[in-house]
Q: What sequence folds into this?
C-alpha cells in the first residue's frame, strides 16, 4: 500500500467513527509513524509503506477510532512553542490556556517566585520559567501520576534545573510545611466544569482525560472558592493570583476575589472573544 492509499484508508475509518477532523488526524498519524511531513502526501503519495509501517498506522487508527485523543496516541502536545509529554494522567494542554500564560508573562519580572496550582503536565509553570530569567517555581498537584509527567517535562525542557520543584498536595495543604513561604504569583487552571456537564463532553475528554482534573463540583466553582480563600496567606504583598476560567464564570470569580480582598481585578478574553482569564492583586 502506498502513502496516499494508506492515508485514504485511515481517513475513511476515522470519518466513519465520527472523529472530528478525520482528514487531519489521519495525516498526523501517518506522519507520526513514517516520520514524514505534510508535503509527502502531496509530492510522494505513491511511495510504498513497509509492512511494519502499515501495521503501525492501522493500530493507531483503530485506537483513534475509539476516540482516544490523538495527543495520547502520539504522546505529545505543543504548547507555547514547546513539546510536552502527555498521557491519560494529565489534561492535554489547550491553546486557550496559552492566554493564561501570556497574561502572567505580562506581569512577570526577573527573579519572581511562582506557584502553579493543579499543575498537571506542568505546561503552565514550565513555559513561564522557560521564557523568563531567574524566576523559580513550584508546581502542585494531588495526583502523583500527573506529577511524574510534569517532572519528566521539566527535565526535558528545563534540564536538571533547581529553579523548579513539584509537590504532591491537596491544594495548599503541604505548602504550610514551610512556614512563611510566599510567592509573587499564583497561577491555576483548576477543574472548573460543573459535575452535571461532564456526561455531555465529547468522548475524547469524558472517557480519556482525568476526571479529577475536569470536575469543578456542582457549579464548577469549588476550586476557585478553595484557592481564593487560602491564597492570601501565601502571596507576597502586591502578589497576583491568576485563573483560567470557563466562558461564563468571570463574574462569579471576580466577586470571590473582591470579597477576599483582591484589588485591580481584571478579566481577559481569548481570541474568540470569550472570558478566559481573571486575575487580581493582593495587598494583605
A:
Amino acid at each position: 500500500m502506498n502513502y496516499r492509499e494508506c492515508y485514504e484508508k485511515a481517513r475513511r475509518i476515522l470519518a466513519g467513527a465520527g472523529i472530528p477532523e478525520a482528514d487531519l488526524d489521519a495525516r498526523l498519524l501517518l506522519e507520526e509513524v513514517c516520520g514524514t511531513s505534510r508535503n509527502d502526501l502531496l509530492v510522494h503519495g505513491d511511495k510504498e509503506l513497509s509492512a511494519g509501517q502499515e501495521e503501525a498506522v492501522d493500530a493507531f487508527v483503530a485506537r483513534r477510532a475509539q476516540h482516544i485523543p490523538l495527543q495520547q496516541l502520539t504522546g505529545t502536545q505543543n504548547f507555547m512553542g514547546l513539546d510536552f509529554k502527555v498521557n491519560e494522567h494529565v489534561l492535554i494542554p489547550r491553546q486557550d490556556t496559552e492566554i493564561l500564560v501570556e497574561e502572567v508573562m505580562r506581569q512577570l519580572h526577573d527573579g519572581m517566585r511562582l506557584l502553579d496550582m493543579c499543575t498537571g503536565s506542568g505546561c503552565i509553570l514550565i513555559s513561564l520559567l522557560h521564557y523568563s530569567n531567574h524566576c523559580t517555581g513550584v508546581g502542585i498537584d494531588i495526583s502523583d501520576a500527573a506529577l511524574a509527567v510534569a517532572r519528566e517535562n521539566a527535565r526535558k525542557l528545563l534540564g536538571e534545573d533547581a529553579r523548579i520543584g513539584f509537590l504532591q498536595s491537596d491544594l495548599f495543604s503541604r505548602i504550610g510545611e514551610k512556614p512563611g513561604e510566599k510567592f509573587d504569583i499564583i497561577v491555576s487552571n483548576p477543574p472548573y466544569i460543573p459535575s452535571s456537564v461532564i456526561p455531555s463532553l465529547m468522548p475524547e475528554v469524558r472517557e480519556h482525560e482525568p476526571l479529577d482534573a475536569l470536575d469543578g463540583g456542582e457549579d464548577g466553582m469549588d476550586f476557585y472558592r478553595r484557592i481564593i480563600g487560602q491564597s492570601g496567606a501565601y502571596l507576597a504583598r502586591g502578589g497576583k493570583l491568576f485563573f483560567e476560567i470557563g466562558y461564563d464564570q468571570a463574574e462569579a470569580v471576580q466577586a470571590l476575589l473582591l470579597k477576599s480582598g483582591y484589588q485591580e481585578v481584571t478579566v481577559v478574553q481569548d481570541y474568540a472573544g470569550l472570558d478566559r482569564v481573571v486575575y487580581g492583586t493582593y495587598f494583605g
Observations:
- The longest strand covers residues 235-244.
- Residues 32 and 74 are 7 Å apart (CA to CA).
- The longest helix spans residues 144-158.
- The mean pLDDT is 94.
